[in-house]
Fold this protein.
Amino acid sequence: MATAKKQSAKKPAVKKSAAKKSAAKKPAAKKPAAKKPAAKKPAAKKPVAKARPSTRPSASLRATGAAKKPAAKKPVVRKPVVRKPAAAKARPALVLVDRDRTRFLRDGEHFGVATIAVHDIATLHVPTGMIVTCDPFLVEGPALARKVAPGAYRVSLAVATFTGDKSKGDQRIAAATVRFRDGLPARWEVAAFDSTPHKQGGEPGYPVDAVTGCFIDAGAQAAIKAGPSAWPTPTDKALEKQLLTDNYTHAWGWASYQPDPASPGNCVAFSSGYGDGIYSSYWGLDASGAAVCLTTDFDVFTDEDWTAS
């Protein structure tokens, strides 16, 4: 009997390719990107605190037990400083230089490197007997307290010529003088005003602002003040022409002006030494106290010049 062979049931063949196609492809897992380490900023350095000096004693002293704790300092109480006033320095004694203004009346008198020459320039007419000393361009100021006899008096100038290296040949009017009589004064006294608006070194004086001084009769002064006031006045023109042209010499000049034709009273003007300032006048008196002259000192000379031999 034929042996019947069992036929094994065949499984359907599965193609690998189809199986591969049917198989779902899983997406490949992406590896996370490696992050670069962030650059670390350098840590700010903390300021190193300086070690305070230790108040502990040194090891050697600690070992011996000789160290002591520093004593607590007591607050210092400062007392106010009382300053004693400085002792006043003794001032040098004031040496008064004797100024004998009679020397202005003598030709050839020497003051240091300067020599005096006396020039007679004009006649002062004083019908009122009252003399005013002032700047003729200001024409202000009171009359002198002392009166003189009405009359006509000559006026002279003491002109100093300097021979020093710095001012060789320079000339300045050192003083102006009205002579009331011949002879020389026995003494001098300062000429005071009826009122004293200005002082020079404690002595009455008059201000000069236009480099010119004068002697003027009180009536002539009043006539000038009563005239035109708009500049230039007739007085200004007359004085300037003579001072700067007609009667001008090296560094000095003079003028004579009669403001009122009806009166002889006039003004005799002259350059004032080195210029503007406040200048005093002095009466030269004889032994009986009568006026010999009236002199205005323009302070051209120093004390050294007055005392120079």
